[in-house]
């Protein structure tokens, strides 16, 4: 594997609405220091890949209104690698667009696609897994997804069912995907967990650029045709203007629906590195370091007294005292305050 | 009773420390809109007296650093009636000073003394009680205290024990004080409540100015001599300078200790108008209007969901969601946030 062939696509267009009041439409989760470590989730995402990908091969696809934030937070990423969607159309148009851009720069590119707002605890294992997957994808026509070890019957994730009978010929730890399953209800999720061949779909994909461009041609002809038609304007001053015209005409569809569920050579690489999509306050609580009483704290001058299993996440507060709470979310940003039971985290949006 | 003889003294020098994070040394409780009605407790205090006292007879004694706040909040009070203490020496020097000032203006004055940071629910009954008490004090040499009906065994208030056998000659509802009792422990307080002749000492006093000046001469000679010595400088440009020199030399003592506990003609007028010193978040909760679930809310855009018996008091927050709390205090001001069980309100200072 020649690392100069490795390209990384960070999809940073999401609008995290479940993280009110911290995440807003103006500045969604990926641009925030949600882990309280001094870096945004976008910055952590790039950092996580270490030296797997040279910086000139890092691409960020984001909403046009987020362009300045991306440039500010990732100044090392070449400006021409920041692609701006005039509107969100799901992951399929996003990936097709950037795949054509990469293909034009390097037809032998290996591509890793990742969301910008997930967290990984064990980054060393993460990088080992990515390297192995890239090796595999560089030598095959495989579409590879990373399958996260499902540690509890989550209803907030989609699942990948692996066929563990048949490891990939050239890689003993990579298996054919039997099927993709949408977010299940609680009972179904428990059934998945009882079996040992279901993995969380993290939306992290690895392939070589020819494979994915061909897959679009075969399984998503409409989208493929749109971005192939722009080959003559890529890297010209007209590119953004044409994208702004044509992007809204794309069907809104995820790459899972458009490609994964139809393609033949789809594989899953089971991994276990403490992954979370940090989709709710509860999952952030799970990812953050905790004190002896299970409290996770992000913020200045926070005093947690006689409390257990809480997450206290304050951004603008000068000082905070929390006493006598068990299993609560306490979140503040810019004068917006949320106090709610962790068990009710899915209902937060309905409270205000 | 000639209302032009009636004078009101509002003691506004206190520094409420139990109301963190709302009350601060820079702007204590009496200057805050703690009731969430658009008026400070100082403003509510003056308003409560209606037309009992002409505005030119209203006096405010406060700390020098609070002068501007008093002038701003009570612009109708004559500037020369705002007396500034260079330091707090308790209520005895404060009252002796203002009594001499009043005596020089009107030797026949009836004087009502009140703290600036208490609340009264039934203001109509309050005014009736004050009028009756002033009538009595204007015709006698009586020192009269208002005795608040003790509705629960409070340990945060001092008590007045009345001798109910002997009503005052000219007023059937005013009784001789048997003794003053300091803040009791819980068991003692329960004993007080079981009897029917114990009242909370609200620090509201009524007397005529000769009576109190004479009482200081007899029972608190040191303080009396200090303020009598300044008779020639009152209402001259030198007054504040001399006060600044001499005030710190006064013994620090309350009027209860200096006068009440020693004087002969001390009476109590039992009243029941929903009084509270609003000394803690719990007592504020008790005074505020509540929803069907016992929640009291002061603040903008506050949503209280699936919660009971809470007080939510936010000053600078733009929006607040509180879900799933029972019996909690949630308070915010200027980026300082407190969440604590109401039962632990006395320990709040120790939490931060």
Low-confidence segments of chain A:
none
Global shape of chain A:
globular
Radius of gyration of chain A: 21 Å
Question: How much helicity do the residues of chain A have?
Answer: 25-40%
> In DSSP terms, counting alpha (H) and pi (I) runs of 4 or more, how many helices of chain A?
11
Assembly state here?
homodimer
Q: Please give the number of β-strands of chain A.
A: 17
| N- and C-termini, Cα separation of chain A | 52 Å
Which structural class matches the secondary elements of chain A?
A: alpha/beta
Rounded mean pLDDT of chain A is: 94
Portion in beta strands of chain A:
25-35%
- Strands of the biggest beta sheet of chain A: in what spatial order? 6-9-7-8-10
Give the biggest beta sheet of chain A: 5 strands, mixed, barrel
Order of helices and strands of chain A: EHEHEHEEHEEEHEHHHHEEHEEEEEEH
> Largest interface, with Cβ-Cβ < 8 Å?
A-B, 29 and 29 residues
């Amino acid at each position: 594997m020649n690392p100069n062939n490795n390209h990384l696509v960070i999809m940073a267009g999401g609008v995290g609405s479940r993280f009110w009041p911290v995440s807003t439409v103006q500045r969604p989760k990926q641009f925030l220091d949600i882990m309280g470590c001094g870096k945004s989730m976008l910055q952590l995402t790039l950092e996580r890949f270490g030296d797997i990908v040279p910086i000139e091969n890092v691409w960020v696809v984001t909403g046009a209104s987020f362009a300045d934030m991306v440039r500010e937070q990732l100044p090392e990423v070449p400006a021409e690698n920041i692609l701006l969607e005039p509107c969100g159309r799901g992951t399929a148009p996003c990936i097709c667009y950037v795949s054509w851009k990469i293909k034009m720069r390097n037809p032998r590119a290996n591509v890793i696609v990742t969301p910008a707002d997930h967290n990984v605890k064990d980054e060393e294992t993460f990088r080992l897994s990515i390297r192995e997957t890239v090796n595999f994808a560089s030598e095959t026509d495989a579409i590879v997804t990373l399958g996260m070890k499902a540690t509890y019957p989550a209803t907030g994730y989609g699942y990948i069912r692996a066929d563990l009978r048949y490891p990939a010929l050239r890689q003993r730890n990579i298996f054919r995907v039997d099927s993709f399953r949408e977010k299940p209800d609680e009972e179904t999720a428990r059934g998945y967990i009882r079996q040992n061949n279901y993995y969380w779909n993290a939306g992290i994909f690895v392939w070589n650029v020819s494979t994915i461009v061909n897959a679009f041609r075969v399984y998503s002809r409409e989208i493929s045709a749109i971005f192939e038609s722009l080959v003559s304007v890529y890297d010209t001053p007209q590119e953004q203007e044409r994208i702004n015209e044509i992007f809204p005409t794309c069907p809104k569809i995820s790459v899972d629906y458009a490609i994964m569920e139809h393609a033949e050579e789809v594989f899953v690489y089971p991994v276990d590195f403490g992954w979370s999509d940090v989709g709710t306050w509860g999952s952030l609580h799970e990812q953050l370091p905790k004190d002896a009483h299970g409290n996770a704290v992000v913020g200045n001058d926070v005093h947690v007294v006689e409390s257990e299993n809480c997450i206290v996440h304050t951004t603008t507060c000068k000082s905070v005292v929390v006493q006598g709470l068990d299993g609560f979310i306490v979140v503040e940003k810019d004068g917006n305050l949320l106090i709610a039971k962790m068990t009710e985290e899915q209902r937060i949006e309905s409270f205000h």
